[in-house]
Design goal:
By secondary structure, this protein is mainly α. The protein contains eleven helices and no strands. 25% of the residues are buried.
Length: 225
C-alpha cells in the first residue's frame, strides 16, 4: 500500500494526471516483488518512488527543505536494511537526478537552481550516511571481517535464473504452478512479473514524449534492469 501511495505521489509530483498516476501506483504495488518478496527486500524497495520524489523536488526547488527531505528519505532506505537494494534504489535515484539536471540544463543553462542542486544532492547523501553511521559502520565491519554472511561465490553468475524464463515477467506462472515453496526456497522465477497489461501500457507510453522525455528515461532504466 505504501509503495502504491508513494508511486501515485511521485507521478503527481512529476506532473501527470490522476488516472495515469493511479495506474502506476496500482501496477507497482501489485508487481511480483511487492507481493511475493515481502520477507526480503521490500522494506527498501517501497521507498524508491519516495526517493524519486525527493530528487525531483531538490532539482526543481533546491533549498534547505529539499535537502532535508532527501536526507531523511535516503536515511530511511539505509535503515530498511538490505545492502544490495540500498545501493540499487539510491543508484536509481542518482540516475534520475542526472537526467533531471541534464534536461533542466538544456532548457535553462544559466538557471541558478542547477548549481544549487549539484551542491545539495551530495550534501544530502553525506548527511544521511552520517545519521545512519550507527548502522553502516557495523555492517562495514561485518562485511570485512566476518565472512559468515558472505554470498556463495556463484551468486550473480551460476546461481541466477535462466534467461529463458524472462517471459515470466509478462506471464508469471508460465514455468511453475506455485510462486514459493513452504521452506522459502526458489521455485522458478518468482517475484519478477509485471504482467502483459503493464508492459503494453508502458509501450504505448513511448509513442509520445512525456514531461521532457521522462518516459524514455524509465524505458531505458527498465532495459538496464
Amino acid at each position: 500500500l505504501l509503495a502504491g501511495i508513494f508511486t501515485y505521489w511521485f507521478m503527481r509530483t512529476a506532473g501527470f494526471s490522476e488516472i495515469p498516476s493511479l495506474g502506476a501506483g496500482i501496477a507497482f504495488m501489485l508487481s511480483g516483488p511487492m507481493v511475493l518478496i515481502q520477507f526480503w527486500t521490500i522494506n527498501v524497495d517501497i521507498l524508491l518512488p519516495l526517493v524519486l520524489i525527493a530528487v525531483h523536488r531538490l532539482v526543481h526547488k533546491p533549498g534547505i527543505a529539499g535537502l532535508l527531505f532527501l536526507t531523511i528519505t535516503v536515511w530511511l532506505t539505509i535503515l530498511a536494511g538490505h545492502p544490495e537494494h540500498i545501493f540499487l534504489v539510491n543508484a536509481f535515484g542518482f540516475c534520475y537526478f542526472i537526467f533531471l539536471l541534464f534536461t533542466q540544463y538544456l532548457r535553462r543553462p544559466r538557471d541558478p537552481r542547477n548549481k544549487k542542486a549539484l551542491l545539495f544532492y551530495p550534501a544530502a547523501n553525506l548527511l544521511s550516511f552520517g545519521l545512519a553511521a550507527f548502522f553502516v559502520f557495523p555492517f562495514i565491519y561485518n562485511f570485512l571481517f566476518e565472512f559468515w554472511n558472505a554470498h556463495h561465490p556463484g551468486t550473480g553468475t551460476l546461481m541466477e535464473e535462466q534467461a529463458g524464463r524472462a517471459i515470466t515477467i509478462a506471464l508469471p506462472h508460465f514455468f511453475q504452478t506455485i510462486p514459493l515453496t513452504f521452506d522459502w526456497q526458489y521455485a522458478g522465477w518468482y517475484g519478477g512479473y509485471l504482467g502483459t497489461s503493464v508492459l503494453a501500457l508502458g509501450f504505448l507510453g513511448l509513442l509520445r514524449r512525456q514531461k521532457h522525455g521522462i518516459n524514455y528515461f524509465f524505458a531505458a532504466l527498465a532495459l538496464v534492469l
